[in-house]
Design goal:
By secondary structure, the protein is α+β, with helices and mostly antiparallel strands. About 35% of the residues lie in helices and about 25% in strands. Helix 5 packs antiparallel against helix 10.
Length: about 300
């Protein structure tokens, strides 16, 4: 076992031989949209991102389906089709899957990929002086909540769905090309929850500049309308006292940083000399902070 659960990494890695490591992950969740094909696509992208965050190449998938036996089978067919379409684009083969009768719909995949054992990008490799890059805007959890309560604008809805169906394949390939020191994908623990895991695993402090964080449309407005998930509270408790906020960081911005993401971006720790090349190649990627030597707090947010 080359990567296990010790540092809360995105996927496990098992060495088959000196040239090949097996990368494995699993993820599934309840619907984030009323459009079944889009839901299927998002579920596929969300699962694939764990492999891409390690720098791996996904190869195969097994579907996980929870669906009511008396439900609309056409809807289930569209969910599966959406996932299949997304995986086809990534050249990942669906080998099969498993389903159970459940009144609450849930869908996702177990993904298997490969990586060279010496090219694994973990969340524990961030080095002092590195620059932090985020590849996608934040706010999907807040917008999804806004959609449920009919508070989100069409612009916000479209932006969230577009970003959740955007693959991390190119971002991962370029990360491998330039040689990233550490990476994690931003999902259920929000930016600050996953940044906390990287800081803890790397034994350093991450300084994040909130003014540089890219947000999806209307996110702060929706937060003001209390369009928050349970993850806001849970993620604050998860990070606990390991974070220091500057007084200039508003409560709304804090909620955006703790917001659980679905199929979120990659948080990458790069040497400063490599950052410009990376940001130029990957559309939407932004510099959001840097790595400092270990201080009293694992996270500092200005």
């Amino acid at each position: 076992m080359l990567v296990g659960f010790e540092t809360s990494d995105d996927a496990g890695v098992f060495r088959l031989n000196d040239q090949i490591g097996l990368v494995q992950t699993v993820d599934f969740f309840t619907p984030v949209t009323d459009e079944p094909e889009i839901y299927g696509q998002i579920a596929a992208i969300n699962s694939l991102n764990d492999i891409y965050a390690m720098g791996g190449t996904p190869l195969t998938a097994l579907s996980i389906v929870c669906y009511p036996q008396k439900g609309d089978w056409d809807v289930l067919g569209k969910i599966l089709l959406g996932g299949q379409m997304a995986l086809n684009r990534e050249r990942v083969a669906v080998l099969g899957g498993h389903s159970v009768d459940d009144q609450e719909i849930k869908f996702g995949y177990a993904i298997t990929g490969i990586i060279h054992p010496k090219k694994i990008i973990k969340n524990s490799g961030a080095k002092v002086g590195d620059i932090l890059v985020l590849t996608k805007s934040l706010g999907t959890g807040i917008i999804i909540t806004g959609i449920k309560f009919e508070k989100a604008s069409e612009k916000a809805k479209k932006a969230a769905l577009n970003i959740m169906t955007k693959s991390a394949k190119d971002a991962s390939k370029e990360m491998q090309k330039v040689g990233a020191n550490a990476c994690t994908d931003i999902t259920g623990f929000g930016l600050l929850g996953h940044a906390f895991e990287m800081a803890k695993a790397s034994n350093i402090t991450l300084k994040i500049e909130s003014s540089k964080i890219p947000l999806l449309p209307n996110v702060l407005d929706l937060i003001q309308q209390k369009m928050l998930t349970r993850g806001d509270k849970n993620n604050r408790e998860y990070v606990g006292k390991n974070i220091k906020f500057n007084k200039s960081v508003t409560g709304e911005m804090q909620s955006a940083l703790f917001d659980p993401q679905t199929a979120g971006g990659l948080l990458i720790s790069l040497e400063e000399k490599k950052v410009e090349q990376y940001v130029e190649k990957i559309e939407g990627s932004k510099i959001i902070g840097r790595v400092k030597s270990k201080k009293r707090f694992l996270l500092e947010v200005d």
